[in-house]
């Protein structure tokens, strides 16, 4: 009996020893040191032999599950617009072949979006920081197999995760009225075009795009796209982080343009001068054309044909120092001006002569155009002056120009027509929105301005109300107060109001 117990004990010990030796014989691979980590690469997907995705950017994660076992995780697996969730295979057996490792695994998964149970077979290799993975996903509900081929490179962990479009611009595109606005939170980029822009013009747009450092983008910058419909851009960060942006047309706008290309001759003899042909534009040049009667030569407005931005001509506004001849009819200075509206000479109230504004039926968005400016040498103040001796010189002051647009209510509470003049264009309670050039200092070359309308006194644009729009350009910004410098010259060209 004792002998039998001894043999039984020996047998148990030998089994334990065999088991222990067997565990010790399992291969131990340097998974955490060499293989585990995140891999950045792309997926190719086939559904029953038909390609449904090629070169799709995706990261996979490999982790240690045992001495010779790894797990593989593919997050947010999507194809054909369906996100099936995360594919995670817990136990994939490793085998070493020199410096390369191969692995296999099988697992039943329950995928999202109603796909349900799927049997997943995986095979792959890991070699010198490169991963190749083949997944066969048998979708029970569809009775079809999805084949996935993945290739990627292992990340170091120091790569940037930034995947942003930082700038998106259409250059040299006349149909664009509002450059793209990037909403990074929603991934939406929107822009606006002229009301008469065609699908052919939209299909010919070429964007200039800037993105996060070390990221890539598809489609690439500088490549023509058809923006007649939405265009999707995919940005991939250095570490494989993916962000999509959808670029779409947000609306169409109408441009009121003043190119100053066509002019007409007005008056006769010494009063003969040129004025823009646009009926909505007015100037004080007609009144100034009578100054020759007082021995004053020149005009406050000229047609400029040599120095233009585009087209045939531009407008040149010149401040006239008339202080030496001033009297009850001759002001100290006559500022060059162009404005929308009418000039109706009022001898008793010179500022009342400028009737600003024309009917405008849209909501103004931007005031745009080109200008350059040279201030005159001697700044004078003729406010309240009645004779030349009353005029005060200010050598410490440099003249500036003025360019602005004003939207105002065209009717008062009783329904009477409202017309703003030089007395109240900058102060009237009827003003609703303004676009004012902030920098009226010297500009040696034509300078572009693009000014958004801002609303005053808490007012808003109300559809159904009647409005007038005044554009006012002057070679001396305080010319309405009879302040400025003789010879101050303002060139303007290609003015436009963008409204919707």
Primary descriptors:
single chain; 500 residues; mainly beta; Lipocalin; Immunoglobulin-like; Jelly Rolls; ten-stranded mixed beta sheet; nine-stranded antiparallel beta sheet; 4 helices; 38 strands; 50% strand; elongated; disordered N terminus
> Domains counted in the coordinates: how many?
3
State the CATH architecture of the largest domain: Sandwich
Average pLDDT, to the nearest integer?
91
Kindly name the structural category. mainly beta
What's the helical proportion of residues? under 10%
- Which regions are unreliable across 5 or more consecutive residues at pLDDT < 50? 1-23
Spatial extent as radius of gyration: 38 Å
Say what the CATH topology of the largest domain is: Jelly Rolls
CATH class of the largest domain: Mainly Beta
Report the biggest beta sheet as strand number plus sense, adding barrel if it closes: 10 strands, mixed
Helical region count?
Answer: 4
Measure the end-to-end span. 107 Å
User: What do we call the CATH homologous superfamily of the largest domain?
Assistant: BT2081, beta-jelly-roll domain
Strand portion: over 45%
Number of strands: 38
Overall spatial form: elongated
Domain Lipocalin-like: 35-152
Keywords: Signal
Signal peptide: 1-19
Organism: Bacteroides stercorirosoris
Description:
The structure is a single chain. By secondary structure, this protein is mainly beta. The protein is built from four helices and 38 strands. It has three domains: 124 residues, Lipocalin (Beta Barrel), CATH 2.40.128; 87 residues, Sandwich (Immunoglobulin-like), CATH 2.60.40; 241 residues, BT2081, beta-jelly-roll domain (Jelly Rolls, Sandwich), CATH 2.60.120. Strands 12, 13, 15, 16, 17, 21, 22, 28, 34 and 38 form a ten-stranded mixed β-sheet that branches. Strands 20, 25, 26, 27, 31, 32, 33, 35 and 36 form a nine-stranded antiparallel β-sheet that branches. It has an eight-stranded antiparallel beta barrel with strand order 1-2-3-6-7-8-9-10. The longest helix is centred in the first third of the chain and has 24 residues.
């Amino acid at each position: 009996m004792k002998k039998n117990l001894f043999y039984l004990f020996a047998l148990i010990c030998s089994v334990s020893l065999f088991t222990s030796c067997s565990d010790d014989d399992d291969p131990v691979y340097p998974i955490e040191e060499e293989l585990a980590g995140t891999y950045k690469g792309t997926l190719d997907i086939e559904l029953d032999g038909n390609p449904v995705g090629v070169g799709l950017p995706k990261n996979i994660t490999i982790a240690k599950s045992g001495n010779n076992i790894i797990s593989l995780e593919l997050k947010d697996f999507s194809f054909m617009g369906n996100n099936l969730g995360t594919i995670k295979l817990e136990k994939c057996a490793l085998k070493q072949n020199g410096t390369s490792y191969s692995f296999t695994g099988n697992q039943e998964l329950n995928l999202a979006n109603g796909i349900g149970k799927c049997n997943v077979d995986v095979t792959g290799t890991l070699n010198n920081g490169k991963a190749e993975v083949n997944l066969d996903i048998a979708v029970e509900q569809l009775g079809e197999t999805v084949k996935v081929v993945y290739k990627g490179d292992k990340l170091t962990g120091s790569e940037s995760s930034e995947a942003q479009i930082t700038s998106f611009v259409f250059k040299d595109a006349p149909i664009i009225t509002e450059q793209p606005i990037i909403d990074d939170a929603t991934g939406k980029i929107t822009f606006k075009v002229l009301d008469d822009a065609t699908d052919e013009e939209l299909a010919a747009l070429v964007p200039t795009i800037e993105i996060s450092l070390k990221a890539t983008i598809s489609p690439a910058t500088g490549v023509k796209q058809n923006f007649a419909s939405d265009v999707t851009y995919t940005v991939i960060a250095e570490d494989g982080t993916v962000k999509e942006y959808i670029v779409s047309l947000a609306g169409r706008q109408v441009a009121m343009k003043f190119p100053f290309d066509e002019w007409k001759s007005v008056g006769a003899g010494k009063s003969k001068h040129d004025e823009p042909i646009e009926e909505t534009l007015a100037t004080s040049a007609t009144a100034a054309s009578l100054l020759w009667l007082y021995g004053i030569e020149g005009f406050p407005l000229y047609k400029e044909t040599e120095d233009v931005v585009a087209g045939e001509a531009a407008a040149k506004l010149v401040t006239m120092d008339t202080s030496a001849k001033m009297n009850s009819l001759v002001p100290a200075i006559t500022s060059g001006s162009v404005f929308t509206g009418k000039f109706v000479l009022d001898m008793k109230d010179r500022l009342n002569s400028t009737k600003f504004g024309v009917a405008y039926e849209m909501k103004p968005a931007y005031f745009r155009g080109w200008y350059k400016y040279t201030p005159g040498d001697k700044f004078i103040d003729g406010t309240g002056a009645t004779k030349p001796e009353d005029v005060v010189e200010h050598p410490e002051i440099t003249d500036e120009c003025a360019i602005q647009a004003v939207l105002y209510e065209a009717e008062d509470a009783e329904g009477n027509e409202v017309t703003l003049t030089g007395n109240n264009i900058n102060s009237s309670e009827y003003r609703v929105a303004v676009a004012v050039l902030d920098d009226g200092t010297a500009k040696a070359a034509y300078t572009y301005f693009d000014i958004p309308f801002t609303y005053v006194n808490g007012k808003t644009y109300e559809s159904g109300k009647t409005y007038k729009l005044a554009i006012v350009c002057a070679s001396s910004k305080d010319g309405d107060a009879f302040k400025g410098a003789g010879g101050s010259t303002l060139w303007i060209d290609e003015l436009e109001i963008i409204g919707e």
